[in-house]
Amino acid sequence: QVKNKAPAEVQITAEQLLREAKERELELLPPPLQQKITDVEELNDYKLRKRKTFEDNIRKNRTVISNWIKYAQWEESLKEIQRARSIYERALDVDYRNVTLWLKYAEMEMKNRQVNHARNIWDRAITTLPRVNQFWYKYTYMEEMLGNVAGSRQVFERWMEWQPEEQAWHSYINFELRYKEVDRARSIYERYILSRALAVLVLVHPDVKNWIKYARFEEKHSYFAHARKVYERAVEFFGEEHMDEHLYVAFAKFEENQKEFERVRVIYKYALDRIPKQDAQNLFKNYTVFEKKFGDRRGIEDIIVSKRRFQYEEEVKANPHNYDAWFDYLRLVESDTEAETVREVYERAIANVPPIQEKRHWKRYIYLWVNYALYEELEAKASKRTRQVYQACLELLPHKKFTFAKMWLLYAQFEIRQKNLPLARRALGTSIGKCPKNKLFKGYIELELQLREFDRCRKLYEKFLEFAPENCTSWIKFAELETILGDIDRARAIYELAIGQPRLDMPEVLWKSYIDFEIEQEEYEKTRNLYRRLLQRTQHVKVWISLAQFELSAGQEDRLQRCRQIYEEANKAMRSCEEKEERVMLLESWRSFEDEFGTDAAKERIDKLMPEKIKKRRKLQAEDGSDAGWEEYYDYIFPEDTANQPNLKLLAMAKLWKKQQQENEAAAMDPDKDIDESQT
Question: pTM of whole model > 0.90?
Answer without folding.
Answer: no
